[in-house]
Amino acid sequence: MTSIRNHIRRTREDVVVDTTIYLLLAIVFFLCAYPFWYGLVLSLNDSLDTGRGGMYFWPRVWTLDNYMEFFRDATWLRGFLISVLRTVAGGSITTLFTMLVSYGLSHEKLLFRKAYMAVIIFSMYFSGGLIPYYVLLKNLGLLNTFWVYIIPPSLNTFFIFIAISFFNEIPEALKESAKLDGATEMRIFRSIILPVSLPLVVTILLFSAVGQWNAWFDSAFFISNKALRTMGYLLMETINQANVPSSAVAAAQAAASGKVDPLAVRVTAMMISVIPILMIYPFLQRYFVTGLTIGSVKG
Amino acid sequence: MRERKSSLWKRLWEQRYLQLFALLGVAFILVFYYTPMSGLLMAFKKYKIQTGYAGIFTAPWVGLKWFAEFVTDYNFNELLRNTLGISVLKMLFTFPVPLLLAVILSETRNKAVKRLVQTASYLPYFISWVVVAGFCLQFFTTQEGVVNKVIVALGGEPRFFLSSPDYFWGLVIGTGIWKEMGWWAIIFLAAITGVDPSLYEAAMIDGAGRIRRIRHITLPSIAPTVTVVLILAIGNLLGGGLGGSTFEQCYLLGNTANRAASDIFQTYSFRIGLSEGRYSYATAIGMIQSVVSVILVFSTNAVSKSTTGHGLF
Fold first, then answer.
1. pLDDT tens per residue across span A227-239
2. Closest Cβ–Cβ partner in A24, A39, A297 for B228
3. pLDDT for position A13
4. What is the rounded distance in angstroms from the CA atom of residue A211 to the CA atom of residue A12?
5. Are B141 and B222 spatial neighbours (Cβ–Cβ below 8 Å)?
6. What is each CA distance from B27 to A100, A107, A155, B12, B34, in whole angstroms?
7. Torsion of CA A251, A254, A259, A260, to 10 degrees
8. Counted domains in chain B
9. Which residues of chain B have pLDDT under 50?
10. What is residue A255's predicted lDDT score, i.e. its pLDDT?
11. ipTM rounded to 2 decimals
12. Are residues B95 and B1 part of one domain?
């Protein structure tokens, strides 16, 4: 294809199309990347200096004070730790559970497989909505416990479909050979399936960990115990407070008293919730594209 | 007969671990997905939360009382207008953008530029709506917002982007596009990559230019993928289509100042249910949305199957 292109003279249309494309790409890049950059700049700049305004692309007075302040604050630190805990625990439990269930369901010879799949597929299209769900969680005793972060999201249909498509790609011969050797299903799963499913494990782990890390909804509606609030929830709370007019006054007062002002802490908290995602981004890129294309187009 | 029966048990026993795994999953889905569906009964009843989950089944029937009350609720017209308006406009504006982005990316000859832009474009997908709301404060507040500062610098008047109903729908559509376009572009891009290169070569030899190749080869070739994504999006019309969760947007960006444009069925149902404790009434409101969504999925799928031959199921 390239060889043909090289032999064909660039027409005027080519020039126009290419120019338009690069212009649009520049706009897309700026719109997507700049908010993150601007957030980083604000979080790394002295908060009093930020108040003077006029800073857009580079910090004027470098400081890590905003980050120190975040981790010195007992409420934020606690929220951060709860978020870390639910990410690690929730991510691993979801991954393990999804792998087991999907492995079972992926077998063509599984009895009642069609019925099981019908149950799962229908649940993708119809839901009882929030209130019955809330009543259910209440009666399961999950409200106001850490478990509400872990158990309800431990299995979802999207992950099941990704995993089933993956398992279906594993050559049947691999499993058969182990069976002839007298291995049980458990053993086959542990010593044959798991090792070749590393990309799948990583995909689901990343997906569910990002979901857990970003979660705020359950913390807002299913938790009233302040000690269990996640960082996402605390961030939502500060953003809501900033969304009312009186906070401008509060910010000015804080700035005058020389304390780190709420804007700086808010932006820093935002960056602290974004930075881990940026750090695992190369892995996300590598694994989730396959996951997405299998999951949503086939599922 | 007896032999067949015993062979069924035998086969079940042979696959006991597989059955155990599968049943664990099915049981989980039954508890966390189907039990709430049975809870929809409370939309037709006078339910009190003190009576536990079983109370849903024993509560006295009230027929369509809550639905009738909702339709005559003084907020109803506004809620309906916002729910439908936001859903339909989001659909119209957020669906074409990822498609356009995918086509543009596939036409980019400089691979490094393509990768850089694509990488940046789906970064917003991975952050939470809470952080997006935080970015909105950074950019759109009247005093400190970067956008307003630019407007003022150019000699304009600052706008109340976050605290006026006039801008709310635009804000929802804009942030929806920003957060999700790169993600959905991946799917379209994958489909474009799968197009047979010889088609392009033949078209080039016939003298077709870039635009014509896009129109007559790229777009028709990825039509099946576009159809599937369109069905998914229409099925999720009230949830937000391809533009992410409308509920989260309206909940996080909505405030008392822009409520006339930001209050939708779901946010209203939340306030009524969880803040005011009117569980039956809130369930009825939520149920309207679930039923409409299911009808949308099945009807778009049926229409698409009969007209284009492509469908989800």
1. 999 999 999 999 8
2. A297
3. 85
4. 47
5. no
6. 13, 18, 11, 18, 10
7. -10
8. 2
9. 1
10. 52
11. 0.91
12. no
pLDDT at A278: 92
| Domain A66-299, classified CATH 3.90.79.10, yes or no | no
The pLDDT value given to residue A54: 82
Using the beta-carbon criterion (under 8 Å), do B283 and A11 form an inter-chain contact? Answer: no
B163 belongs to a structural domain: no
Among A172, A46, A291, which residue's Cα sits nearest to residue B190?
Answer: A291
Yes or no, beta carbons of B17 and A263 under 8 Å apart = no
pLDDT for the residue numbered A299: 37
In-domain check, residue B54: yes
Say which CATH number the domain at B73 has.
Answer: 1.10.3720.10
Give the residues across from A62 on adjacent strands: A45
Spatial distance between the Cα atoms of A96 and A61, rounded to a whole number of angstroms: 47
> Can you give the pLDDT at residue A298?
42
Identify whether the C-beta of residue A277 lies closer than 8 Å to the C-beta of residue A209. no
Q: Which residues contact B189 (CB under 8 A, 6 or more apart)?
A: B102, B105, B106, B118
Q: Which B positions 66-85 lie with beta carbon below 8 A of chain A?
A: none
> How far B39 CA lies from chain A's nearest CA (Å)?
5
B121 touches chain A (CB under 8 A): yes
Put simply, whether B188 touches A (Cβ < 8 Å) is no
Shortest alpha-carbon distance between residue B146 and chain A (Å)? 8
**CA dihedral sign of residues A66, A70, A71, A74:** positive
The pTM of the full predicted model, rounded to 2 decimals, is 0.90
Chain A nearest C-alpha distance from B24 (Å) = 7
**Based on the domain organization, do B49 and B80 belong to the same domain?**
no
Element (DSSP H or E) covering residue A226: none
**Residues B50, B74 share a domain:** no
Segments of chain A scoring below 50 in pLDDT: 1-3, 246, 258, 295-299
Same domain for B91 and B110, yes or no, is yes
Using the beta-carbon criterion (under 8 Å), do B201 and A4 form an inter-chain contact? yes
pLDDT, residue A62, reads 93
pLDDT reported for residue A256: 54
A226: which 2 tokens? Answer: 């302040």
Structural domain spans, chain A: 66-299
The model's pLDDT over B107-148, given as tens digits with 9 standing for 90+, comes to: 998 999 999 999 999 999 999 999 999 999 999 988 788 999
